[in-house]
Every structure is written in structure tokens, then in C-alpha cells.
């Protein structure tokens, strides 16, 4: 737990004071109560030392005690933390005498630590990728709902009502809300990251086979398990995300029969981009209308899918493309990607970028992407974007057939901005007023 807390701090602030013994204001010397920041490297090294100790003393499992950390949870944190340290060393810069950043000379060492930890988990933990349903979309959906321990290494347990959360209440499509909903609107840029199933290429790449008239079909099966698109069936009915209806050349965008019940503009709480999140939402044959605190889906903190991706990334950064392909293949095969299974057409930086994209999709909405683009030092490009969405027009032909026309639009008035200083958060004036030894991060 100490390692986990320090990891959460170091990825936000860089180096922070390392305090290993509880402080007592009555007897602890004054200078120890107000320590300076340790370097970012020292914090990562402390994390890796702690997880190694935890790995040695924790059991393989806790029978009938779900939610407790095992030795494999500790090894998973080692896999993740070492990968972060390695990529910051390789792609970041050393500043403030090491309070932020890591020496570039340490990158290969940390990548190897991460790879070794990942390989140990894959070979020895007994965990396996969740493959319980023949349909890849259903399988990926149920991975987050069945609460199986096949793939899950460490999770936070939730119990509806007694110790429940409100994920369903906050994120169901507008027309399925109880008194809230649709708080997250996925971007078109994210949806465009899913491959065309028949070619293994992205929609923007020549020869992909992408069909603009039917854009959400023939795609990576995880798309429909992660995102709700127009007319997808959810809780027993199609989610109608069209903003108007065209009949005989006339377009009706009023609030009557002319607009879908989840369409853009139907209500301020409806989707802002033309998409909803599906991942982690409970599904059924009828609307569930789950009240506040009645959701009980467990929150997965570490799972084997991430570990395979960690191993693939570490391998490509160490120059071992064959090993990277070996570790990316099981994840893509489980996802139902039959073309370019091992990403054979790509090498070098292209292969690295494909592995990063795989991570973006496989771990979507699991609290990884924001931190990944920061540690790769590409957030200034990846997050400084004009957010795009898709407007869907329903067309009723003279014969009564229903078709749809899709068009891209700017979902936000202004582009987002991520600046170089945002790779680290500010220590803050209040903390510095309390302890003048705390040096502020660059740019603040």
C-alpha cells in the first residue's frame, strides 16, 4: 500500500519526500517534520524495493477473501511502475537536479525490470486471459461484469447498496437515466482508433475497407463492447442517437418524432459527441434504472491483459520486436482480430505505435490513457486536440426503409490544450508555505 501510494504521487508530482517511519510531532526532530523532496528516481526505486518485499511476504492467494492483495498484485505494480520509470527516463528530461525526470541512462534497466516482472506473472501466477464466451464482443463485455478471477489480479470489491457505487447511474444513455446519466462522451478520435476487422488497418489508412455509410460495423469487436453507437441495442432496445429525420427531402429536428430519444440536442445531459460508454455498464433485456449506490461492478486495478501489454511495450523498447509480437498476440487473438494478428506489417516506431494503440483500446476507461500519453511525453499532441463527434441523420426512404447519414462535427467550441508544464502537477503554494524546502515544479 505504501508503494501504491507513492506511485500515485510520483506520477503526478515527480519526486516527493520519502517518509518510511511514522512521524510524531512531539518527539520527531523539527527538521525531519519538514523534509525536502527526494528525486523522482529515488521515489521509483523505493516503490520497486517495497513491492519486492511485498512479493516475498504475501501469499499466492487469499482463499475466500476477495479484494486482498496477493504477491501477484505486488508484482503487477512492479511491472507497471518500472514501465513508467523507463519511459520517463527515455522520453522525458531531467530537471531540478532530478526532482523531476530520470536519467536517460536508466531507461533500459527499468524496461528490463518491467519485462522480467511481467514474464514472471505470465508464467507463474496461474492467471489466464478471460476467454469464456465464443463471441469476442460478448467476451470482452463480460470480462468486466462476470467478476471472474481468471484474469483479474487485484480488484476493489463493491457490494450494491451496502458498499455500492453509482457508475451506472452516471453513465447510462440519457433515455435510460434514473435521474442522471451520460456523464462521459467518447470522442470520434478515440472511436477512429479501432481497426477495420477485415484488413487490420485503421479507417484512415489506404485499403482499410472502411465503409463511411456503415462506419461502426466490420470493426475491432471491442468497439461495440466499449462504446454505444447509434442504434446499438442496450438493455433491450436500440439507442437512438440521431439528431433528426429526413423524409421526402425535409429534415425534422424538432422535439417530436423527428429526433431520436438520445440524439444530440435532445437534452443537455445527452451525449455531446454522438457516442456513449458501454464498458462496465450492466446490461439486460429491459431498462434497469439502477439507483445511486446500487451498482456493484468490482473495479479492476490489475489484470493480466495489462501485463501482456506491459511486456510487449518493454520488449519493443528493448529492441526485441519478436518478443513484443509474442506478447501482443494473445491480447489481439482474444479480441477477435483475425488480420495482422502479430502486427507483422509493422516494425520499428510503427510497431511501437501500434502497441501503444493496442493499449489505448484494450485498457480504455480503466484509468491508463491519460497517464500513458504523459509518460510517453506525447500529451502535448495527443491531448491538445479539437474534440470531434459524429452527428447522425436518420433518413426514411419512400419505401419506408431506414438508413443513416453520418457527419463529423466539432463537439467543443475550442480545442483542448496540454502544455509542457502539465507533465507534472504543481506542488502548490499551500504546501510550500507549510514547508519551504519543497521546490515548485517547472512552469508554475
Blueprint of the fold:
Layout: H1 2-13, H2 30-33, H3 40-57, H4 71-91, H5 107-124, H6 136-143, E1 152-156, H7 167-171, H8 188-191, H9 222-226, E2 227-228, E3 233-234, E4 237-238, E5 244-247, E6 250-252, E7 276-277, E8 299-303, H10 304-317, H11 321-334, H12 348-362, H13 369-375, H14 379-382, E9 388-396, E10 402-410, H15 429-434
Parallel strand pairs: 5-9
Antiparallel strand pairs: 1-8, 2-7, 3-4, 5-6, 9-10
Helix pairs in contact: 1-3, 3-4, 4-5, 4-10, 5-10, 10-11, 10-12, 11-12
What does this structure look like?
It is a single chain. With 444 residues, the chain is of the alpha+beta class. It has helices at 2-13, 30-33, 40-57, 71-91, 107-124, 136-143, 167-171, 188-191, 222-226, 304-317, 321-334, 348-362, 369-375, 379-382, 429-434, and strands spanning 152-156, 227-228, 233-234, 237-238, 244-247, 250-252, 276-277, 299-303, 388-396, 402-410. Helix 5 packs antiparallel against helix 10 and helix 10 (304-317) runs antiparallel to helix 11. The chain is globular and about 85 Å long.
Keywords:
4-stranded mixed β-sheet, two-stranded antiparallel ribbon, 35% helix, globular, 444 residues, alpha+beta, 15 helices
Amino acid at each position: 500500500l505504501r508503494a501504491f501510494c507513492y506511485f500515485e504521487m510520483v506520477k503526478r508530482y515527480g519526486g516527493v519526500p520519502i517518509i518510511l517511519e511514522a512521524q510524531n510531532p512531539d518527539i520527531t526532530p523539527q527538521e525531519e517534520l519538514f523534509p525536502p523532496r527526494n528525486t523522482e528516481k529515488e521515489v521509483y526505486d523505493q516503490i520497486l524495493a517495497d513491492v519486492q518485499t511485498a512479493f516475498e511476504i504475501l501469499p499466492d492467494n487469499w482463499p475466500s477473501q476477495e479484494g486482498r492483495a496477493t504477491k501477484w498484485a505486488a508484482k503487477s505494480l512492479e511491472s507497471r511502475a518500472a514501465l513508467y520509470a523507463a519511459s520517463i527516463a527515455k522520453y522525458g528530461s531531467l530537471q531540478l537536479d532530478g526532482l523531476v525526470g530520470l536519467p536517460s541512462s536508466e531507461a533500459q534497466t527499468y524496461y528490463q525490470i518491467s519485462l522480467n516482472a511481467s514474464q514472471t506473472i505470465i508464467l507463474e501466477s496461474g492467471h489466464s486471459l478471460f476467454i469464456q464466451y465464443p463471441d469476442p464482443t460478448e467476451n470482452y463485455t463480460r470480462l468486466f461484469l462476470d467478476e471472474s478471477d481468471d484474469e483479474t489480479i487485484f480488484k476493489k470489491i463493491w457490494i450494491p447498496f451496502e458498499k455500492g457505487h453509482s457508475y451506472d447511474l452516471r453513465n447510462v444513455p440519457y433515455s435510460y437515466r434514473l435521474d442522471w446519466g451520460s456523464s462521459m462522451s467518447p470522442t470520434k478520435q478515440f472511436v477512429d482508433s479501432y481497426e477495420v476487422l477485415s484488413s487490420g488497418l485503421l479507417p484512415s489508412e489506404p485499403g482499410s475497407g472502411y465503409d463511411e455509410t456503415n462506419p461502426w460495423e466490420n470493426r475491432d469487436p471491442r468497439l461495440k463492447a466499449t462504446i454505444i453507437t447509434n442504434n446499438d441495442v442496450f438493455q433491450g432496445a436500440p439507442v437512438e442517437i440521431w439528431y433528426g429525420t429526413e423524409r421526402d427531402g425535409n429534415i425534422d429536428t424538432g422535439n417530436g418524432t423527428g429526433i431520436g430519444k438520445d440524439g444530440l440536442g435532445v437534452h443537455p445531459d445527452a451525449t455531446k459527441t454522438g457516442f456513449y460508454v458501454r464498458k462496465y455498464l450492466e446490461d439486460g433485456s429491459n431498462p434497469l434504472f439502477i439507483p445511486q449506490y446500487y451498482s456493484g461492478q468490482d473495479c479492476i486495478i490489475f489484470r493480466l491483459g495489462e501485463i501482456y501489454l506491459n511486456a510487449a511495450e518493454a520488449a519493443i523498447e528493448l529492441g526485441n520486436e519478436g518478443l513484443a509480437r509474442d506478447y501482443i498476440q494473445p491480447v489481439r487473438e482474444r479480441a477477435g482480430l483475425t488480420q495482422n494478428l502479430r502486427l507483422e506489417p509493422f516494425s520499428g516506431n510503427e510497431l511501437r505505435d501500434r502497441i501503444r494503440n493496442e493499449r489505448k483500446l484494450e485498457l480504455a476507461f480503466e484509468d491508463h490513457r491519460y497517464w500513458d500519453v504523459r509518460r510517453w511525453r506525447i500529451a502535448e499532441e495527443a491531448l491538445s486536440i479539437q474534440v470531434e463527434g459524429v452527428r447522425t441523420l436518420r433518413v426514411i426512404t419512400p419505401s419506408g426503409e431506414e438508413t443513416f447519414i453520418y457527419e463529423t462535427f466539432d463537439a467543443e467550441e475550442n480545442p483542448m490544450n496540454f502544455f509542457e508544464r502539465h507533465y507534472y502537477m504543481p506542488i502548490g503554494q499551500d504546501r510550500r508555505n507549510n514547508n519551504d524546502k519543497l521546490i515548485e515544479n517547472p512552469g508554475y
